[in-house]
Design goal:
By secondary structure, the protein is of the alpha/beta class. Helices cover 42% and strands 14% of the residues. Helix 4 crosses helix 6, helix 7 crosses helix 8 and helix 15 packs across helix 16. It is elongated, with a radius of gyration of 30 Å.
Length: 627
């Protein structure tokens, strides 16, 4: 099979340039500037850096367009200048190459630099794959505009943190510029793994199957780690290999970020890169014309201007491990699968370390015939005992099964994966995936939120773990075996948005849903009709009101739809005891009416009144006893 890069360079070693951003920073451009926009406002500065690299022996220079995509430029207000900035970047590089040809009769090529979008894509983020591909396509159109000799000679998709993003960039390149060679480079961590957890072997196999002309590693933590990753990739693909590492990790020196790897050190690794099979070599952050000069000398010293193609064994594409059928994963899963009506009660973790009251409540409810206990994860952003800890204690000490509420608020994707693996290993098998309340709603409003993903992304992560794959698509040895629940809020003002998000959750892998507390059954009925096309079993949330003030809080502070008829009923009570009794009767009425519509109910236990929750359920459900 003919490789399009072979048509440009044959099999010889090719030297790329080094960093652009680091050079601009060293020349006094503050890091709060949009470096890509300098193609318009300071083209001579950008051109001078290109010319320096060409003078030191670089044969390929990359355009100053690493971040020239819609999602990065919108941060500076330049989103309408994507095409203009990319075309200008190519023009500047072409001028530098033309000067080399005119003054020294030298030959060089222009590569279009395409960096990551700087956002999370689905399933971990809100940006769809189609939106990502469109953004890459918009940038590539600017880079190739004008055709051969005017646009770029090749495209370099670089510093890709995740394979799904690299795939969209490749698809965009093939769609917009099918005749232009494409080099695709990932970045790796200290353990030589891609930032989404993918192994370099798996990355190489996937990039090869997706139609890259060359693959490799750039940026990362320095040449040593990059070499390890390159050696792994060499076992999994027969494509030409490219390597462009940082000059080590930056260190803060007198308020400036300084890269400490010397040109001589980079030159020593250049020889190692060549021995590992690299054909395309260059530098990333922190590399300068001095580094490129030393690396050029290293390639000459090895007499490595030709490389012989070798046939390498390919790493197998990872296959998933399907989970057990829903009915076999947990008691909740069996009840959902069989269509049985499920009775749940919510127990909130304590604010201290003593959970004896919660354990006593769980034991009481288990004895009364409740099917499962729900345990919220720091509701209303309050600081409480770990929901995971209370879940396992309830299961071990009372025997009743639990559903772990799990939010994205406090954890990045690495922590999420770690927590979920741990939860599965200790016997927690039911997960309710939630975005989580922002910290400003809680008792520590200055706490920092993470929100790497939202509940849709979390459902995707759990679904993937259920199929024996981590967030990078690598095998974890077995399925985590969770039942996957999602939340729904039938009374939210933006019902169209709620229905759309519910559909995404179902598509991502949610197997049943639990609603927020419902007081207006007309709202619940309307929501269920809206989701009929993608309906999964729905469990209705019911909250026994304790007072008129509690009802007012629900309606006015939490913006829950509470009908005037219920407000009047609570207003008519004459004592706290009468108010609590009326709240239970209202909940019983709602449960009786809602029962034909849903597959279960979750009854909250306001202020730890577990007997009230049991009383609500006992009046309607056979098998549930009152205290």
């Amino acid at each position: 099979m003919t490789n399009r890069l072979h048509d440009l360079f044959g099999n010889r070693t090719v030297l790329f340039d080094g960093a652009m951003g680091s050079m601009l920073y060293d020349r006094g451009v503050f890091i709060n500037r949009c470096y890509d926009e300098l193609n318009l406002s300071q083209p001579e500065l950008v051109r001078s850096i290109h010319e320096e690299y060409l003078q030191t022996g670089a044969e390929v220079i990359e355009t100053n367009t690493f971040g020239a995509n819609h999602f990065r430029l919108v941060r500076y207000g330049f989103q309408d200048k994507v095409a203009e900035i990319n075309k200008a970047g190519v023009k500047i590089a072409r001028q530098a190459v033309a000067q080399l040809k005119d003054k020294q009769a030298g030959t060089a090529w222009v590569a279009g630099s395409i960096g990551p979008l700087g956002i999370h894509l689905e399933p971990l983020g809100k940006t769809s794959l189609e939106e990502a591909r469109a953004a890459f396509a918009e940038q590539i159109r600017g880079l190739v505009a004008g055709g051969p000799g005017v646009g770029v000679d090749l495209l370099v998709i670089e510093t890709m943190p995740a394979l799904n993003e690299a795939e969209q960039a490749l698809l965009a390149a093939h769609e917009v510029a099918p005749d232009i060679p494409v080099m695709t480079l990932v970045t790796v961590d200290e353990e030589a793994q891609c930032l989404d957890g993918t192994s370099p072997e798996a990355a190489a196999a996937k990039l090869t199957s997706w139609g890259a002309d060359a693959i490799g590693v750039n940026c990362s933590t320095g040449p040593a780690t990059v070499l390890t990753a390159l050696e792994c990739m060499a076992t999994a693909s027969s494509l030409p290999l490219a390597v462009m590492p940082n000059a080590g990790m930056p260190r803060a020196v007198d308020g400036r970020n300084i890269y400490l790897c010397s040109p001589e050190y980079m030159a020593s690794f250049t020889r190692k890169f060549l021995r590992a099979g690299a054909q395309f070599i260059g530098g990333c952050c922190g590399t300068t014309p001095n580094h490129i000069r030393a690396m050029k000398s290293a390639t000459r010293a090895m007499d490595a201007q030709k490389t012989s193609p070798t046939h390498k064994s390919r790493a197998p594409i990872v296959t998933e491990t399907p989970p057990a059928p829903l009915a076999e994963r947990s008691r909740v899963g069996r009840l959902v699968h069989e269509g049985k009506f499920i009775a749940m009660v919510e127990i909130v973790p304590p604010k201290g370390i003593d959970c004896s009251k919660e354990l006593a409540g769980a034991s009481l409810l288990a004895g009364l015939g409740i099917d499962v206990i729900n345990v919220p994860d720091s509701p209303r952003a309050s600081a409480r005992m770990s929901a995971q800890s209370l879940c396992i204690q309830i299961q071990q000490k009372t025997g009743i099964e639990t559903i772990l509420h799990y939010t994205c608020r406090d954890r990045n994707v690495l922590s999420i994966q770690s927590d979920l693996l741990g939860a599965s290993s200790i016997g927690l098998k039911n997960i309710l995936c939630l975005t989580g309340d922002p910290p400003k709603l809680g008792n520590y409003p200055d706490a920092t939120a993470v929100f790497d993903v939202d509940s849709i992304g979390l459902v995707n992560i759990v679904h993937r773990l259920n199929h024996g794959l981590d967030i990078g698509g690598n095998p974890i040895g077995a399925s985590t075996g969770f039942t996957i629940a999602c939340a729904a809020n039938p009374g939210v003002p933006d019902i169209d948005g709620e229905v759309r998000r519910f559909a995404y959750k179902v598509e991502a892998g949610a197997e049943y849903a639990i609603t927020q507390p419902v007081f207006d059954l007309r709202v619940l009925e309307a929501f269920l009709k809206r989701v009929e096309e993608f309906r999964i079993p729905v469990i209705a949330g019911i909250w026994p009101l304790t007072s008129l003030r509690n009802a007012e809080f629900m309606k006015n502070d939490l913006r829950v739809a509470v009908p005037d008829s219920i407000m009047l009923r609570m207003q008519a009570t004459t004592s706290p005891e009468a108010a609590r009794a009326e709240g239970i009767r209202i909940a019983q009425d709602m449960l009786e009416t809602a029962r034909p519509m849903v597959q279960g109910v979750q009854v909250s236990a306001p202020f730890g009144r577990y007997t009230a929750a049991a009383e609500v359920l006992a009046s309607v459900l056979p098998g549930v006893s009152a205290v």
